[in-house]
Design a protein that fits this description.
By secondary structure, the protein is of the alpha/beta class. 45% of the residues lie in helices and 22% in strands. It has a single domain, classed as Response regulator (Rossmann fold, 3-Layer(aba) Sandwich), CATH 3.40.50.2300. The protein contains six helices and seven strands. The strands form two sheets. It has a five-stranded parallel β-sheet, with helices on both faces. It has a two-stranded antiparallel ribbon with strand order 4-5. The longest helix is centred in the first third of the chain and has 13 residues. This is Response regulatory domain-containing protein.
Amino acid sequence: MTHRILLVEDEELNRMLVKAVLSRAGVDTVRDAELVDATTLAEARDSLRAGGYDLILLDLNLPDGNGLSLARELKTGEPPADRPKPVVVAVTASVLPQDQKAALDAGCDDFLDKPYAAADLIATVARHLK
């Protein structure tokens, strides 16, 4: 089964880095994933309406709002009939304990703080797609 990952990230360099790391990963569940990107909350919502995702890598600081609002929507919304709710990983440079707590309270399943090592990104994605 091909996993679908939605990367919600407004910084082009960060998107390129994630794509490069995941495409070169030696972990089957990462290498075989379909990666779709969105640069705003609006694009992310459109992508989520268009098809189910297994994992969302969600930047919390986006040009059109805070990613936590999307996490809250996903937590309370109904998933598509053929797929479970996606795992949401908050990805942010805001790494204070209260930021991590806010992300988890909003419905995020995990937290990855920027800057992160490529190995941490691969391990996080692989852990949630196994």
